[in-house]
Amino acid sequence: MAEYIYLLSKDAVIIKPPKKSSMLLRMVVLMFAMTFGVYICTICLQQISGLSKVNIKDIQVINEPSNTADRGLSHVPKLHYPNPESFSREECVDNPVRYFAIVSTQRSGSGWFETLLNSHVNVSSNGEIFSVLDRRRNVSAIVGTLDRVYNLDWFSSASKNECSAAVGFKWMLNQGVMEHHEEIVEYLNRRDVSVIFLFRRNLLRRMVSLLANSYDKYAKLLNGTHKSHVHTTEEPATVLLQAETLSKYKPIVNSTLLISDLRQAEILVAKALEYYNTTRHMVVYYEDLVNNSKKLEEVQEFMRLPVMELRSRQVKIHKGPLSELIKNWEDVNKTLYGTEYENYLRADY
């Protein structure tokens, strides 16, 4: 390296090394700062990445509908605020109302089930409204009847008041449900009506109940009066006597057509579930309601209602083993034994 020589006088010479380059020093400092900065950024990014992973892993979404879950149970219906033409809801105008329909077949426990629902303070189920032919004569008549019910313009003994939280009725499969299913499905989905399918697993017991009820329509066993159901609104002794009187009749089941009739009943139910698959719905069986007390809670939750203890005053008519209820039991037993319907012979409900 070159040295600078300073001459102070002719007798004195001082040799002094040169100053370090300021540019080199700046470069060294800059490189150090950059390296340290990169190190700090790397540490920060690692910490942020770690936190993100923990958050994503630990967070759980509550009440998110599953894409593969049954649409009927996952879809939350819209809230309705009906404005009836026949009366004013006044202070209840802002109370939402759920719409529902109980779709069933005769002698499947729908009457008993409806009395259970109507024991809920917030429910008004208006009975079998389409039993009247004019109300189901065509699609226009059906839609007009549905509008009256869901607009709260339908009044029956089951009507609570303008503050009802759930309004509906029961509808049998042979009352226009199957013939006009496309138009009805469109209506139910458009108005967000929840459908409760109620069926009976033991179709043989249902058949016995159908035959006995059909016989009583003409025989009128209770002092010349036909009764499809017996309720405890009267004296307990009277109620028990009525139920016992009705249960004494033992129908004769056509054993020749028995398997064919049972199969046709199964097909009808399967078609109904297929036709109404796109609605918000749940399927309930009479036997489950009888044997599982939690099933009624599931129904109330499906209807988005506060869960209450539900009670019915309806009394069961046909009790005991089927061997005591069918007159030609030996023929029926022989026909079903060894078939897919053999379990019907032993079931209690």
TrEMBL record:
Task: State which residue ranges cross the membrane.
Answer: 24-48
Q: Which PANTHER family match?
A: PROTEIN, PUTATIVE, EXPRESSED-RELATED (PTHR32175), SULFOTRANSFERASE (PTHR32175:SF20)
- Signal sequence interval, chain numbering: none
Name assigned to this protein? Sulfotransferase
Q: Which domain of life is it from?
A: Eukaryota
Q: What is the species listed in this Swiss-Prot or TrEMBL entry?
A: Linum tenue
Keyword terms, alphabetized:
Membrane, Transmembrane, Transmembrane helix
